[in-house]
Design brief:
Distance between the termini: 12 Å
Strand content: over 45%
CATH topology: Immunoglobulin-like
Order of helices and strands: EEEEEEEEEE
Structural class: mainly beta
Strand order of the largest sheet: 3-4-8-6
CATH architecture: Sandwich
Largest sheet: 4 strands, antiparallel
CATH class: Mainly Beta
Oligomer: single chain
Number of helices: 0
Helix content: under 10%
CATH superfamily: Immunoglobulins
Radius of gyration: 15 Å
Length: 126
């Protein structure tokens, strides 16, 4: 089991460490006005034993910690690139989350779930 801090840092539950495998950092919130686009950097530090293939996924949820996927409203798009790649030990990788809104987007709070799957290491989300 992993926990995500408010700062967007994945850390293992006490008593079990994956820090020898990988470390992920990213912003955990962003404010946009209708019609704006924001780019967020995701940094993966692969450590000595991993992580192998990396798969990222982002989708909308109802609230913090929710897991059920919701449809994305019209005028709102989110993506991450690259979303799937091979990571080698002792290397740093960068992906970019792109969030776009149209001027017609209904104002509100939108929760996104960011899932990470690391071969030979662990799964996490935030």
């Amino acid at each position: 089991m992993l926990m995500c801090s408010p700062e967007g840092i994945i850390s293992p539950v006490p008593g079990h460490s994956h820090f020898d495998d990988a470390f992920v950092r990213y912003d955990d919130s962003v404010e946009l006005k209708a019609g704006e686009t924001k780019l967020l950097d995701v940094t993966l530090e692969a450590r000595k034993d991993g992580p192998g293939e990396v798969i990222y996924a982002i989708y909308r949820v109802a609230e913090e910690y929710a897991e059920d996927k919701l449809p994305v409203p019209a005028g709102f798009t989110v993506s991450i690139e690259p979303s799937k790649f091979m990571a080698y030990p002792n290397t740093i990788y960068h992906s970019t989350i792109t969030i776009k809104t149209s001027p017609e987007l209904v104002p509100g709070e939108y929760w996104l779930r960011f899932e990470q799957e690391f071969e030979n290491a662990f799964r996490g989300s935030g």
